[in-house]
Specification:
By secondary structure, this protein is α/β, with parallel strands linked by helices. It is 46% helix and 11% strand. The strands form two sheets. The protein has a six-stranded parallel β-sheet. A three-stranded mixed β-sheet has the order 5-8-7. Helix 2 links the parallel strand 2 and strand 3. The chain starts with 14 loop residues before the first strand and ends with a helix.
Length: 372
């Protein structure tokens, strides 16, 4: 864990507009910046409500898929050649693709030439992020993930050039999110915060965002699941997701996300569900190495800290109270696939190397078995 004297590089969008009704300022910002050819990257649900952006008829790519793959990205880039500003409108998948479209638009550059850290070229277009779910926090960061269909692995790209010029976080946009999606995305936001809080490279400047993000989820997630029109709960979750996004930049996630990725790439489970299924088990296995922080997480989520099994039970009960079935087998995961999933997860060193506990391939398989 980093001390107060450890250097850290914290970046966020130059402008963050948060709160009810802030989406109404988008058109004014677009005009003030001199942009006239916006291009929206959205999933089908949000492509059907582009009128909310207040931009009139607008060029767009409306076919973002969950866990987007390289072909999905290439299709989005193909339509952006004339754009002068790219707008990500949706959940994490749409916003991640928007980041990549913004640095690839008008260039004949494949993803393989810009993936990894700090390889993406400077943007020649503006970039706006408008989240419609409270989960990934992608609006706050400079990292994007797409799936390589040949290897079923995540390709990570990170660059300061992929940081939005403006993020508009209007909680009203999340009012229509179904209860089960609200639950899963809320746990995803919490996982970002918890994994950053307990990471080997955790830092005091990030800890404050991380812990407050967990507290917001603990206070508001069940309320939003039970009543999607609860404006205060929706706003609290949107803020928690943003805080989680801030955590992702300089610290990032650890074992929880590494173990969840095979669930998304192999079984197409939504990212939030995958993280929820894994969360209690990585929190428990990491607890002995960071007992004070784990106790703070437990308190924020409303259960008493104790042994790793107590932690596992408390975290699982929190998720089950949101209506989530916490058994891997209930989501179509085959027990026979667990060894291959463990090998795949163990290979995600960019995350596992920062986990507070060293996990072997056998350790990971055991966690999957308990989660099954």
């Amino acid at each position: 864990m980093s001390s107060l004297t450890a250097p850290i590089d914290l970046r966020r969008p130059a402008i963050v507009r948060y709160g009810t009704g802030t989406l109404a300022t988008l058109a004014e910002w677009i005009a003030a910046e001199g942009y006239s050819r916006p291009y929206v990257v959205a999933d089908p649900v949000n492509a059907a409500r582009l009128d909310l952006l207040g931009l009139g008829e607008v060029a767009h790519f409306g076919d973002v898929v969950p866990e987007p793959h390289v072909a999905n990205l290439e299709a989005a880039v193909a339509g952006a050649s004339d754009a002068d500003v790219v707008i990500g409108f949706g959940g994490g998948s749409a916003m991640d693709l928007a980041k990549l479209v913004a640095v690839m638009a008008g260039r004949d550059t494949p993803l393989s030439e810009i993936s990894g850290p700090n390889r993406a070229p400077a943007r020649e277009v503006g970039l706006v992020q408008v989240p419609t779910t409270a989960g990934t926090g992608s609006e706050a960061g400079s990292r994007a993930l797409v799936t390589d269909p040949d290897t079923n692995s995540k390709i990570a790209t990170e660059s300061p050039h992929m940081l939005a010029d403006i993020a508009i976080i209007d909680p009203d946009l999340t009012m229509s999110v179904p209860a089960h999606v609200t639950a899963a995305t809320g746990v995803d936001a919490m996982a970002h915060c918890v994994e950053a809080l307990t990471s080997r490279r955790a830092h005091p400047i990030i800890d404050i965002y991380a812990l407050e993000g967990v507290r917001l989820v603990g206070r508001f997630l069940k309320r939003a699941v039970e009543d999607g029109t609860d404006a205060e709960a929706r706003a609290g979750l949107s803020l928690a997701a943003f805080y989680g996004g801030i955590c992702l930049g300089p610290v990032n996630t650890t074992a929880g996300h590494a173990l969840s990725y095979p669930l998304g790439t192999r079984y197409k489970l939504p990212h939030g569900i995958a993280n929820a299924l894994i969360f209690p088990h990585t929190l428990a296995v990491n607890a002995p190495s960071c007992p004070e922080k784990t106790a703070a997480v437990a308190e924020a989520l409303g259960f008493a800290p104790g042994s790793p099994e107590d932690i596992r039970a408390g975290a699982r009960a929190f998720c089950e109270a949101l209506g989530l079935d916490m058994r891997l087998g209930a989501h179509g995961v085959e027990r026979s696939a667990l060894p291959d999933m463990a090998a795949e997860a163990h290979g995600i060193r960019r995350l596992l190397d920062w986990n507070p506990v060293d996990l072997s391939e056998d350790d990971i398989r055991s966690l999957y078995e308990v989660a099954y």
